[in-house]
Amino acid sequence: MANDSFDLVVDSSRYGIAMGLYQNNQRFEFFDNKARGESAGHVLDQLLEQANTSLDHVKRVLVTLGPGSFTGLRTGIAFCQGLCFSGKRELYGISTLEALTSLSNNPNNAVIIRARPGYWYLRYQNKEIFDSTEEVVSLLNTMVNADVILDSFALDDAEIKRAIEQKELKMTLITGTELESFLVFLDQLKPSLIQEANYIQPSYFEKKT
Question: Taking the CB of the first residue and of the last residue of the chain, which one, N or C, has fewer CB atoms within 10 A?
Answer without folding.
Answer: C
